[in-house]
Amino acid sequence: MPTIRLPGAGPVDNSTSPHARLRTLPFGAVRLSEGFWSRRQDIVREVSLPTGFHMLDVAGNLHDLRLAAGLVKGEYQGPVFMDSDVYKWLEAAAYTLARRPDPELEKMADSLIELIGQAQGSDGYVNSYWQVVEPERRWADLSFGHELYCAGHLIQAAVAYDRGTGNPRLLEIAQRFADNIDSVFGPGKRDGTPGHPEIEMALVELYRDTGERRYLNLAQFFVDRRGHGLLDPGRQRHSAYFQDHVPVREASTVEGHAVRQLYLTSGLTDLYLETGDATLWQALSRQWDDMVRRKMYVTGGVGSRHMGEAFGEAYELPNDRAYCETCAAIASVMWNWRMLLATGESRYADVLERALYNAILSGISLDGQRYFYVNPLLSHGVDSLIGRKFAERFAWHSCACCPPNVMRLFASLDHYVATRDGQGLQIHLYTPANLDVTLESGQLARIELTTDYPWRGEVRLTIQESPTNPWSLSLRIPDWSANATIRINGQPQSNVETRKGYAILKRSWRSGDIVELDLAMTARLTEAHPWVDPARASVAIERGPLVYCLEQPDQEATTHVLNVEIDPSSPLTDCWRPDLLGGIMTIQANGSTVDTVAWSSRLYAPFGTTARLPRRSTRLTAIPYYAWANRGRAAMRVWIPRAR
Amino acid sequence: MPTIRLPGAGPVDNSTSPHARLRTLPFGAVRLSEGFWSRRQDIVREVSLPTGFHMLDVAGNLHDLRLAAGLVKGEYQGPVFMDSDVYKWLEAAAYTLARRPDPELEKMADSLIELIGQAQGSDGYVNSYWQVVEPERRWADLSFGHELYCAGHLIQAAVAYDRGTGNPRLLEIAQRFADNIDSVFGPGKRDGTPGHPEIEMALVELYRDTGERRYLNLAQFFVDRRGHGLLDPGRQRHSAYFQDHVPVREASTVEGHAVRQLYLTSGLTDLYLETGDATLWQALSRQWDDMVRRKMYVTGGVGSRHMGEAFGEAYELPNDRAYCETCAAIASVMWNWRMLLATGESRYADVLERALYNAILSGISLDGQRYFYVNPLLSHGVDSLIGRKFAERFAWHSCACCPPNVMRLFASLDHYVATRDGQGLQIHLYTPANLDVTLESGQLARIELTTDYPWRGEVRLTIQESPTNPWSLSLRIPDWSANATIRINGQPQSNVETRKGYAILKRSWRSGDIVELDLAMTARLTEAHPWVDPARASVAIERGPLVYCLEQPDQEATTHVLNVEIDPSSPLTDCWRPDLLGGIMTIQANGSTVDTVAWSSRLYAPFGTTARLPRRSTRLTAIPYYAWANRGRAAMRVWIPRAR
Questions:
Q1: What residue in A sits closest to B294 (Cα-Cα)?
Q2: What confidence tens digit (pLDDT) does each residue in B210-219 have?
Q3: What predicted TM-score, i.e. pTM, was given to this entire model?
Q4: Rounded distance, CA B222 to CA B149, Å?
Q5: Which residues contact A525 (CB under 8 A, 6 or more apart)?
Q6: Does residue A610 belong to the interface with chain B, where contact is any CB pair within 8 Å?
């Protein structure tokens, strides 16, 4: 079946990628309807984007661009990568405007685009720091300079804005810059590779968007030059931070700065989708295994180390000092999405979903105004010299990478719901939506998806329009679903073919057909690999895609979250609480609270001390991890010690 | 009873300190005889000191001083604090020479002293980095410059050298530098405080040694100027690193860079011993409680964070990423020694002993040639990108603070065995020794101490000479000893007075009297505070002052250290192994090994997974923690999970 070029999709349009198994859908093919994620998109539009626009002004990002444009005089403010926050904000605005008109938002966006245009030099170069502060040292510090990183975000925003709004102005700016970069770097030109990966996936997308192969070649050049010591000559200790410690095709582990690592693997997977480079694929597969089998939190968070914002050693997954940068989990979504597109295997969607509902969603407050940079799995909830910023969300941050990153991901979430291939349509994420998809055959299928996911495991798909010839509707069976059942028009389906983690329903669909998927969502207890020290003899409560936690405000008055033990044999009880934290399903369990006063004067004692302490039965109430830290500073834990 | 001024003692001579409860003994009063620690002192003399002298040459420390002396031309090598390694080496040499003549060692030492003298400027200033590299910026960077830090080590070495050998040459150099510093800093002169504490305790000791009160005043000045933002104006995040986050009398927790914190508290305690400043004492007591109750490993190691080499939050004590710098544990010994001198309370000696036998002794290989900078409590034993240096000892290090620090501590260990007060003599550490002590009454007591400590809990003290009037022999009952008994001349003593953790034996001692202390040393299991995540549901094996570990080479062929569980109800069996690791008591326990192959492809699984895995009984063999990593890279763990 021939590949049909459809209008641009969201962040990734792989409709022409030769090595894709699944293809993304164009804007408008999936519209989220009232539900869990559409509410988050509304908050992004109504709160986060306007607030963020204001913060870009307050924090100096716009000031810096105005300096570069020669509109004002003054000192450059903030770190070298200030422009990238503006670009990520614009990308989020693009997806938001693609869904529905919003003159006010469009006005803000257009003002930024105009400003960027004014800042851009006549040669196409634009980066406020290097234009304002060190104009003579342009491209002189690829390791820390972030010029190519900012350029990558500009390109991603520009492609999104063009695709989402039809306004090509930002794309023209970005392409001029890309052409400038292409004139500087490449074989026979300047050697180099960026200290912070990002431009790789942007250039591949620009190639997909424009058909200009030189952008793909430039991405390939940057990738091939990595791992040869260009970024950190003689200082081996930093080479993993820059992702320069090994040529990409020889990598077998995820290492160093987590966002850099996963932006890189995302770009590499994009490259694979275009080139089919088998050696590259093998490296990516090895690295994915390393991440998922040895270096990922149960929340989907990655990058366990504060030091270097880095992946740790295998099984190095502290709860209290978990770094789990929100941006790293977002990068994991980007990478897993591309791996899914390359393979059609649900395990990538499983990891994507885990990060999305937990490690990322915890990164933004329920009201959309405050953010976590770091997402620990344990908080003592106390004020301390340096612990404070990890127990309370902040309104913005001196390195404000996470806020606009959350915005652009949530604003583009319709992109991740479904794909198509030669056989039909695949549903990856379950959230209320209307699908209006041109199949690869060129024929239209319209489906209404209704569900209370992530609170209930029932998903209902109503076929509203379909070609008469048979095609496959593939439904992802999440890894947590132990007992999924499917009914079509009320009839239980007993012999459903399952492939790569998807139930494949192939038939001649008719308007009015109803598919009912029941994922049998019940609360469950999870344990960790026995080599994960800080989760030993503990369980995490999960339900559907959500990881739960115990937060202090939900416990009985005399029960301290740090002193509890759970009885793992007691039933877990769901309780829907529409009034609590925006409406959540809480989970209750039986446990006990240990009187640890005897421990207050010491850290170590003879074996048996804790076992002999008085215990009192208590009812434990768990809330979704993503909802913690919305009621002030309080103790919280994901891993709950088991009663003896 | 009047205080008698005796000839200078080792590192601390508090014989004139008004607020000391216990007073240190002069050189020669305690001579270690053949045993555990004298063997280490021999290794320091025979191996570590000569090797270290060679390394000081190879690493450039001597070259830098030669540059400063104008003897050679070339580039400065290494970090700014290179001189301090030379001074610490000299301090170790001083204690070693105090014990017995060693012409070769003395020649090395004298050559260094001559070199330092040549490097010293006419104004008394000496610091090779600032003399050679940035002479015009002397004292310009108190935060990172380490000039006062190096000066402190020079002073400590000089006082030791003068006391230990009677050769005043280094003391003259040091005092000229101290006078130079005193001419620069102080009220009405230059304001400031050092970024790395160290000079405080050195200046107090110089005051004690010379009687010159201005050195005490200068120490007081540096202390009082700390915590007022002089070191890190406007950058609050680093102020704890420099110990500048709070005025010292307001501190209630140990924070920031661990060595800086504990060198500071050591100096503050010295200051308290001289001034009796009650507010300062209250702060030190609060900080000690915080360290011992919330931030210390079972090994006595402190400073859990790699990032900033810092104390973590309360209960933040990871096993794999434990930093536990050898120098920080040494600093803990220094501080606890001074707290003991101030109070006479055994709990300080308990912490001192714990650090000494475990977190410090692990920092040097059995052959005295290789060192650990970082002392983790868990090693997977595998080579990894950055994990290697934590699983294998190194011969020297680019920041070689630890090796000469271990040398000077071990070389001065006789200093820490006993003290005297108006009532008599106190024994703090048990190791074979001859004590030849002038009591505060001015009368002589001679005692022979024999023991196989730390392998056996029996300690025998033979009174060889004693005044006839009654005096108290106080014997420390370690916190681990649950059932100590004492016999005098074969007669069990049932009503021994115990005060501040010491058994006080007051009587008219006669030559030939024999005291037999039996500390009832048996292997025991220890557990940690339930808030210490990585030790949950685990036990540590301890025996006497030693913490044990499981290292891979001692286990059965198919038993992987990372897969074991211990049966805490099974008896622990001692087994003396003269052939193993220089002669050690091993401890055996029953346990099982879990077949974790089923976990290899995942990190998380339903609760019950590990419980259902096949197990095989195994005999676990534990060795003292200090002895690990002497047989190549291998998995090791201190905390052993308990069988269900």
A1: A603
A2: 999 999 999 9
A3: 0.96
A4: 12
A5: A539, A540, A541, A542, A568, A572, B606, B607
A6: yes
